[in-house]
């Protein structure tokens, strides 16, 4: 063996090990950042889906209540009366089997969109009326605005309805306490025609 020839036994030098550890550290840091970013995106998506699913369920419920409203007939007025801040309906609830109810939609003092309803009574009442039941449909609602469109379309959207005929359309506009939260107007028509 000559002088300058040193036999290597296949190991790594200290410098090679340090370089490998630095590269491994960069890879771990990059992966941790990617995992953290992915978890934040997942959480944001879960929150967005929860908000949209809540609004979607309320949207379907409001449309169903309006569509199932009693249009009245030749002897009875339509079961729709309302103002700008409250809507009254004779309708059918999705959870109550085919029984009409007197329902009201309004925003209470606690900023909840509330469905207040009592079973509809037929004939002569016996005893006191049943107590009304409240169902909170949505939280953090600043105000609800109801508008009504006449069948002939005269006058555009009205802020109150108390006629014998039902309106052609009912519009529900919600304003939330959180100004960043928006929801498009709900416009629905009664599904049943008035019997003549």
Name its key features.
5-stranded antiparallel β-sheet, alpha+beta, single chain, 4-stranded antiparallel β-sheet, 9 strands, 196 residues
Could you walk me through the main structural features you see in this protein, from its secondary elements to its overall organization?
The mean pLDDT is 84. A hairpin with a 5-residue loop joins strand 3 (100-107) and strand 4 (113-119). This protein has a domain at 53-188. The N and C termini lie far apart (117 Å). 28% of the residues lie in helices and 27% in strands. The strands form two sheets. The protein has a five-stranded antiparallel β-sheet with strand order 1-2-3-4-5, with helices on one face. A four-stranded antiparallel β-sheet has the order 7-6-8-9, with helices on one face. It is an alpha+beta fold and 196 residues long.
The helix content is: 25-40%
Shape label: elongated
- Cα gyration radius (Å): 32 Å
Q: How many individual helices? A: 1
Judged by helices, strands and strand pairing, the structural class is alpha+beta
Q: Hey, roughly how much beta strand do the residues contain?
A: 25-35%
Unreliable residue runs:
none
Terminus-to-terminus distance: 117 Å
User: Describe the biggest sheet?
Assistant: 5 strands, antiparallel
Mean pLDDT, all residues: 84
Give the strand order of the largest sheet, numbering strands 1, 2, ... along the chain: 1-2-3-4-5
Number of strands: 9
What's the helix-strand series? Answer: HEEEEEEEEE
């Amino acid at each position: 063996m000559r002088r300058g020839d040193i036999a290597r036994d296949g190991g790594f030098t200290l410098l090679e090990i340090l370089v490998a550890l630095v590269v491994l550290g960069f890879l771990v840091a990059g992966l941790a950042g990617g995992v953290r970013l992915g978890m934040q995106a997942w959480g944001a998506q879960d929150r967005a889906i929860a908000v949209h699913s809540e609004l979607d369920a309320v949207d379907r419920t409001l449309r169903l209540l309006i569509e199932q409203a009693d249009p009245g007939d030749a002897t009875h007025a339509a079961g729709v009366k309302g103002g700008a801040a409250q809507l009254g309906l004779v309708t059918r609830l999705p959870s109550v089997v085919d029984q009409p109810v007197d329902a009201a939609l309004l925003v209470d003092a606690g900023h909840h969109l509330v469905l207040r309803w009592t079973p509809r009574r037929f004939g002569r009442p016996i005893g006191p009326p049943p107590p009304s039941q409240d169902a909170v449909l949505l939280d953090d609602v600043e105000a609800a605005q109801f508008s009504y469109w006449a069948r002939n379309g005269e006058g555009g959207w009205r802020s109150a309805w108390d006629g014998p005929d039902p309106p052609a359309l009912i519009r529900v506009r919600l304003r939330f306490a959180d100004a960043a939260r928006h929801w498009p107007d709900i416009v629905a028509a009664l599904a049943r025609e008035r019997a003549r």
